[in-house]
Amino acid sequence: MMTANQNKSSEIIFILLGFSDCPDLKEFLFLLFLVIYVVTVVGNLMMILIIRITPKLHTPMYFFLSNLSFVDFCYSTTITPKLLEILIVEDRSISFLSCIAQLFLVTTCVVTDAVLLAVMAYDRFVAICNPLLYTVTMSRKLCILLVAVAYSWGIISSMTLIYSLLVLSFCRTNIINNFFCEYSAIFAASFSDKKFIEIILFGLANFNTFCTLLTILTSYVFILFTIMKMPSISGRQKAFSTCASHFTAVIIFYGAILFLYCVPNSKSSWLLIRVSTVFYSVVIPMLNPLIYSLRNKDVKETVKKLIGGSSLAQ
After folding, report:
1. Mapping DSSP to helix (H, G, I), strand (E, B) and coil, where does residue 138 land?
2. Is residue 248 scored above 50 in pLDDT?
3. 180, 102 in Cβ contact below 8 A?
């Protein structure tokens, strides 16, 4: 037996099973995930570029959106290359330190993503419920502060999870029935007493989910009441259109995560768990730029100008 906190972490190995039980599908899955990854990278980097070079899009909403695209790019790049690798090579092992590094980046991205979605909900609340004070309230300084808080809390939450693993003991070889270093799988592989740590981590996970989701739902309750009070139908439609992209992204993100953690933890449900994990960790980072580009008039106009070679400064 080896322990991570006895300078023997380099000898601990994790085996990522991935989709090894579906050998006939590995070529198809490799091509599918490769296409998804390329679309994700191009889509998110294009979104960042479009927002950066278009003066019309230099607003708080698009500032938050560019950061969301950056986090989604990092999220996908942390997971998908390793997924592609274990689909085509026989050796599915990953060292303890590499596994911890991947988990750190994944957790940071997921928590930051959730906080950014909450920040964007607050931004839409101010824009619709207090439009006259929007420019003053959502100042450049506040926007930078909110984004800094999102990244900082993501890192703090991730470091807390990592520390909880570093104090545990592991066997020399451990099996992870997934395609990346997912926390619960690593945690379950330890043979240490984990009751106290479980309580702390349960509180942290619920705190993050409850606070971000509460902020989003509260913002949209006020937004809905404000929209319903608008006298004109066109005003209501414009307000709904302003929130449509963000609300769609929220439903997909939280829907996938809540569904994943509601799946019974049994052998018969492992395939469903992996499919759900693929959706929220690989597919969602691809969907976000598509949602915001297809449902957003300003972004679509900018894309048309880029294709047509028109001036973006107009």
Report:
1. coil
2. yes
3. yes
| CA–CA separation, 269 and 288 (whole Å) | 27
- Range with the largest mean pLDDT of 22-26, 111-115, 129-133, 230-234: 111-115
pLDDT at 269: 61
Tokens describing residue 176: 């992870």
Give the Å distances, CA to CA, from 293 to 69, 76, 135, 289: 12, 19, 24, 6
Task: Please tell us whether the domain made up of 10-308 is placed in CATH 1.20.1070.10.
Answer: yes
Domain definitions of the chain by residue range: 10-308
Average pLDDT taken over every residue of the chain: 83
288 residue type, one letter:
N
First to last CA, the chain: 66
Whole-number Å distance between alpha carbons of 195 and 83: 31
Place of tokens 């607003």: 59
Residue 143 · residue 60 · CB < 8 Å = yes
Distance, in Å, from the CA atom of 68 to the CA atom of 74, rounded to the nearest integer, reads 10
Residues 6+ apart with CB under 8 A from 192: 167, 168, 169
